Amino acid sequence: MIRYALKCDQTHGFEAWFGSSSDYDDQAARGLVECPFCGSRAVEKQIMAPSVSGTKKSAPTPDVAAKVQSMMMEAAREVRAHVEANFDYVGDTFAREARDIHEGKSEKREIYGEATPAEVRKLKEDGVPVSALPDAPPDPSKVN
Predict the structure, then answer these.
(1) Whole-angstrom distance, CA of residue 37 vs CA of residue 138
(2) pTM for the predicted model, two decimal places
(3) What's the angle, vertex CA 97, arms to CA 83 and CA 136, rounded to 5?
(4) In angstroms, rounded to a whole number, what is the distance separating the alpha carbons of residues 40 and 63?
(5) In terms of DSSP H, where are the helices of the chain?
(6) What would the pLDDT profile of 44-93 be if each residue is shown by its tens digit?
(7) CA–CA dist 120, 129 (Å, integer)
(8) Angle at 41 between CA 35 and CA 42, to 5 degrees
(9) Adjacent-strand bridge partners of 17
């Protein structure tokens, strides 16, 4: 089967299916193809992108999207739980502590804490390795 975009001499656009391109040619030559809007038999094919299986990209189905979101939220929870269980919390002294560790003024250890965007930007500019900790995702049982 082949689908054609067609247009009549009155500019009505429509689509029709044929068994093959030669079937269209045969039916059009015998005056059997007509506009469903006005009945005109002066019909011609229009430029149309081919419909090739497997080339169209589609958005994920809602089930897939929900599953991906759930997996991402769980990963964020696991990262945060790992950091909280294994790193030292230094509160709002994070920028100073991170710099001191980087410069060898404090013992090397993994830390987390609070920093302003300006402090984080300055640390990165100075080559201090820092990364944002993902916010704790909401508890799924408490969201509507």
Answers:
(1) 55
(2) 0.51
(3) 30
(4) 46
(5) 21-29, 62-86, 94-102, 117-125
(6) 998 876 666 655 566 666 777 788 888 888 888 899 999 999 999 999 99
(7) 10
(8) 100
(9) 3
